[in-house]
Amino acid sequence: MYVCVIGTGYVGLVTGTVFADLGNDVACADVDEKKIQRLSAGEPVIYEPGLEEMLQRNLEDGRLTFTTDIDEAVRRAQVVFIAVGTPPKDNGETDLSQVEAAALSIARALNSYKVIVNKSTVPVGTGDFVRQIIERNRRRQVEFDVVSNPEFLREGSAIADTLEPDRIVIGAPSQQVALWLLELYAPLERPMLITDVESAELIKYASNAFLAMKISFVNQIADICEAAGADVTQVAKGMGFDKRIGPAFLQAGLGFGGSCFPKDTLSIIQSAKRYGLSADLFEAILRVNKERIPRFLERIQQKLGSVAKKRIAVLGLAFKPNTDDLRDAKSLEILQWLLDQGAEVAAYDPVAMERAKELFPTVRYAQSAYEAADGADAAIVVTEWNEFKLLNLDKLRAAMRQPFLFDGRNIYPPERVRKAGFEYVSIGR
Ligand code: NAD
Ligand code: UGA
Question: Which phi-psi region, left, alpha or beta, contains residue 300 (left: φ > 0; alpha: ψ -120 to 50)?
Fold first, then answer.
């Protein structure tokens, strides 16, 4: 099938590459010329395990191309995916300007029947909005349909998630239109739900808000554990055995970050309000999340006193392991606070330091966790990279001048850390 993907970010790039790998002819189009140049040269532009090799293989085989000529890419395609960004506006509503621009490009290029697929996360009703834009701006009376096909991949495991999704949701105006996507996804042999456009749009927000709710829930439980002398990792484990609850997304920590949970929870609040409905539960999810970092920083201060002039090692910058994405990363809040308080900060992350250097040029960037900890008064684990779990804690302790280890992700067994001579603060234990 001839496929065009508009927007080559985390979602568009991975989706386009995987569709090419499944044997389709895929053109990925973007307005960012530099990005397109680098991608055309086989450079993956983001860190995502397995992406580089798949990208290069499909480029070489000629199934995958990158272009800024959106018109041409749309004209050739039978199915056009919209995978542009949908960031939040200041008032929490979703900014649909990139979606609108993509729909306008499609309208201008429309030359034969096409299925237009919204893969971006968009508020309920956006399918209709896209349809109207194309209808009003098409230059020829050519037919088209708009489908909602939300994306559920996670950064850090995006290729695996795309090849083996838990489900594929297709919101289409008719079975006949849905068949186009059924055919495209058939080789994956995964469960598919065919439904209407509005339900598909809401499935995405409901899923993200639910996962965010699990995280805020376990974080509130962690606070009770801390006060009561219980261990949240044990409590979560005990809860997770119940099939109705499940063990996933019950890891207490610094709260959820990243480009999606915060913005998507904000967006569903706005959708509820638009219909004059209560959004109390969704608002509580964000409120609890917002308290995580101030609470953690308070505990750091309780132990260290003022952090002014103290040397602090920050381990992990990316919003989660296996990505270089810093959008809404907890590290940004922590770094800003440390710098505002006058601390001397050394940071280390296996892949996200280049991006962080642009945001925090005064931080010292180390080549390893040990180097960051050299002469430090305290180390703070912000991202649970595997390599931090495997650190030699005796060596880490020996490098530091004071023994404080603040673990925002509960990656160590407390006895092991204390045996290495650390004063250890983790979450809800
Ligand atoms: P991103 O910001 O990484 O990428 C968006 C891309 O779209 C950029 O390369 C940008 O240059 C391009 N773009 C913007 N306007 C354009 C236009 N008019 N024409 C062509 N290209 C244009 O975004 P992302 O993280 O890939 O997210 C895309 C969408 O997918 C969002 O709605 C997001 O909520 C959703 N989503 C993201 C993830 C994730 O893990 N990142 C997972 C599921 C769903
Ligand atoms: C999340 C969803 O998991 C994807 O299904 C969805 O497609 C995506 O958002 C999206 O819509 O963009 P992602 O943000 O890449 O994916 O990463 P997650 O693994 O979900 O983690 C999000 C945040 O929650 C991270 O900050 C992580 O540290 C935090 N988290 C996650 C916890 O604090 N505890 C947990 O138990 C799990």
Answer: alpha
| Coil, strand or helix at 407 | strand
Does this chain's domain 204-290 share its CATH topology with 292-425?
no
| C-beta separation of 384 from 321 below 8 A | yes
User: Is there a contact between 319 and 385 (Cβ–Cβ < 8 Å)?
Assistant: no
* CATH 3.40.50.410 is right for the domain spanning 2-195: no
What are the catalytic residues? 260
The answer, as to whether pTM is greater than 0.85, is: yes
The dotted CATH code for 204-290 is: 1.10.1040.10
Model confidence pLDDT, tens digit, residues 279-307:
999 999 999 999 999 999 999 999 999 99
The pick from 233, 261, 292 for probing ligand 2's pocket by mutation, whose C-beta has the most ligand atoms within 8 angstroms, reads: 261
Residue 242 in tokens: 């119940």
Q: Give the pairing of strands 64-67 and 25-29.
A: parallel
DSSP-derived 3-state class of residue 64? strand
Assess if CATH 3.40.50.720 describes domain 292-425: yes
Q: How close is the Cα of 13 to the center of ligand 1, in Å?
A: 9
- For residues 255 and 251, give the distance between their C-alpha atoms in angstroms, rounded to a whole number: 9
- Pocket flag, ligand 1, residue 121 (CB < 6 Å): yes
Separation between Cα atoms, residue 413 and residue 410, nearest integer Å: 8
Query: Domains of the chain: which residue ranges?
Result: 2-195, 204-290, 292-425
